[in-house]
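Lecture notes, unit on binding sites. The following record was shown on slide 14. It pairs a sequence with magnesium ion.
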Amino acid sequence: MSWTTRALTILGSTGSIGVNTLSVAAELKIPVYALTAHSQVEKLAEQARACKATVAVIADDHYYNDLKQALSGSGIEARAGAEALNEVSSSPEADAVVTAIVGGAGLAPTLTAIRAGKRVCIANKEPLVMAGELIMNEARKSGAVVLPIDSEHSALFQCLEGHSTSEVEKLIITGSGGPFRTLTDLSQVTLEQALKHPNWSMGQKITIDSASLMNKSLEIIEARWLFNIELDRIDLLIHPQSIVHSMVSYRDGSVLAQLGKPDMRTPIQYALTYPVHTTGSMEAPDFTQLAHLDFEEPKHDIFPSVRMGYDAARRGGLAPVIMNAANETAVDHLLKGRCSFIDIFAYIEHALTHIDNSEHPSLDAILDADRYTRRYFENGIPK
Ligand code: NAD
Ligand code: MG
């Protein structure tokens, strides 16, 4: 199978993944159809002009006039609001969509792109956590090609190519362990410390998730749906250097790993050019300069998030939706100085014990549970 991207829509172009995607698209000369952002009008307009996009969408429609003004004279069409996000996700003008919105807000346009049968390059993992079963079922129906951008999942995808999951003993997701890997007590850590990731440069929400290891919880559930494999065949291993991006351990004792520098442009490019590895500006690691590749068990007593993720995923139904919404709300409170880092675990635990679950929820039930959980924690954990 070969593929040439005709034109690309980037959902969330002003963020960390969005900016990296634009740089890869420019390098590979992939035309851009549409860019979207939440509220950063100036940056969105500047990006749209630079890549000669056809359409720019601002999700928060209060900024529509500002966007129109910022694009005046460019010939680029300004649009706004949730429906416009769906339109550019399903437009026949683009055959590939990169999902780089942060959080559950990306669920609707992700599903729209999937239902429209696009090549959907998924960075935005939260929708898969909330509605992975539904998204993958819809992809099977529409023929959408789902390609992971998350580095671990890009690695697993590459190590699985040409094989069936029935041959797999374990998927081994690696994680750096974040800035608090060596600590034994998280009660005093600060927001500033949590925002300093040792290896990766990313948006604020995923940087906090990496420090709490919630990112790994989300990634375990992401892998469960992307590769249609049971949870007890997905393991987590801490690997501080972030060079081995993940591994597949096969039934005959053979282990395949994918390695690379911690640079998101590599998995972004592979999602855009799959099944071909083409020349880009990224280079392989210099192995003579790597003193060690270390691996260790995650510390579940210090970071309860990973067990909470497995627990929510095993309970299924709305439990992962509730866990994700509790985490997003806690991270938002932390970023605004309204709670401490360690409270994140309390939010999730409270959510999973106090909010009702239900089996095989519909999309509406998922969206309701998401909204309900966010409102529930609006002013912190209810007494
Ligand atoms: P970011 O915060 O840097 O960017 C988020 C983008 O989403 C911005 O363009 C923003 O305008 C848009 N956005 C935010 N809220 C929105 C809303 N309510 N409606 C519409 N648009 C909205 O985030 P990021 O670090 O680029 O991460 C994006 C996604 O990719 C996340 O789900 C993250 O977990 C995943 N991811 C990121 C990295 C990374 O290196 N940054 C790696 C793997 C996976
Ligand atoms: Mg990742």
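Take-home: Residues 150-152, 219 surround magnesium ion (ligand 2) (CB under 6 Å).
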